[in-house]
Structure formats: C-alpha cells, structure tokens
Specification:
This protein is an alpha/beta fold. It has helices at 4-19, 45-54, 70-74, 79-96, 110-116, 124-145, and strands spanning 34-38, 61-65, 100-106, 150-156, 162-164. β4 and β5 form a beta hairpin. The radius of gyration is 17 Å and the shape is globular. It starts with a helix and ends with a strand. Bound molecules: zinc ion.
C-alpha cells in the first residue's frame, strides 16, 4: 500500500528531517569530498571554479551560492539564507556523504555591506577580521551541528587570489 497521500506524507517527513539535520544514513550514491559555499557575486564565479580546480577538486564537490557565503549562515538580515545554508549541508551529507564544508567569502562583498552598514570594513586587515569574526561564529555552529564534518574558510580578493582564514 502506497497511496499518493502516504507518499506525500513520507516526502513531507523526509523534508522535515533534512531541515533539522536528523538524517545521518549513508549516502544514496556517489560521494564527493565537500560542499562548497560561495557568494553569488558574478565577478568571482570563474575564480571560484579555478580555486577548486587548483585544489584538485574538479567535480568532487557540491556547491551552493548564497549572498555573503559565511554571512548567509548567521546574519539576522538574511533569515531564509540562514535556513538554506544549513539545509544544504544536511542535504549534501545525505546525498553525497560530504566530509568537509569549504566556505569562500570574498572582499568587497555587497552582502557584508548590507549586513554591517556603517560598521562595514571594506579594506585590508580590518576587512579580513570582519570576515574572520563571522567565519568563527559559523565554524562554532557547524562543529556543534555536524561534529563529523571538517571545515575550511577562505577569503578571495576581487582579483581571485585567495587566503585561508580559519
Ligand atoms: Zn559577495
């Protein structure tokens, strides 16, 4: 017996479990190393691909782009991005058994400008520290929710050059 109603109830329950991170079963098929989370910024789409290629990760990562990248996980300004960030980590674990989350923020980020307003730091070491503060908050939450996942947090310049932050 598998009526349409039962099927819908099952799908609904599955979606709910995914959204609160309850599903920890094995991946359903092929596995990849990581989930990559980048900003949406059009200037760095090609640089993000080059970055992952240069880390020998070609076609070995899932990817989601959310404005602000790390900021999307925790900023009160972007509540639906908060949910999407954490939902996609749970989904990537379920589908592809990821072992790591790689978050790539970038300098001159419009989402950071929106979120921090007059407190936005748009240059040099101060900008790096602002990203580091957000990244540290995200990493702490990630360790709590998914202690089995490793993480890397990077900051990309508008020229595509990237430095590891934490
Ligand atoms: Zn951005």
């Amino acid at each position: 017996m598998c009526s349409e109603t039962n099927r819908r109830q099952l799908l609904g329950a599955l979606g709910g479990a995914l959204s609160v991170g309850l599903i920890t079963t094995q991946a359903e098929g092929a596995t990849v190393t990581a989930l990559a989370i980048t900003c949406i910024d059009y200037r760095l789409v090609d640089d993000a691909v080059k970055f992952f290629d240069s880390h020998k990760m070609t076609n070995d990562y899932d990817q989601v782009s959310l404005a602000g990248a790390a900021l999307a996980a925790v900023s009160a300004k972007f509540p639906s991005s908060n949910a999407a960030f954490w939902d996609h980590i749970a989904i990537a674990k379920q589908l592809h058994a990821i072992k790591k989350v790689i978050v790539v923020d970038h300098r001159d980020c419009g989402a950071y400008k929106v979120a921090f307003g007059k407190d936005y730091h748009g240059d040099g070491a101060a900008e790096l520290q602002q990203h580091k503060g957000v990244m540290t908050e995200v990493q702490t939450k990630l360790k709590k929710l998914h202690p089995d996942l490793a993480s890397e947090f990077w900051l990309m310049g508008v020229d595509g050059r990237t430095e590891r932050v934490i």
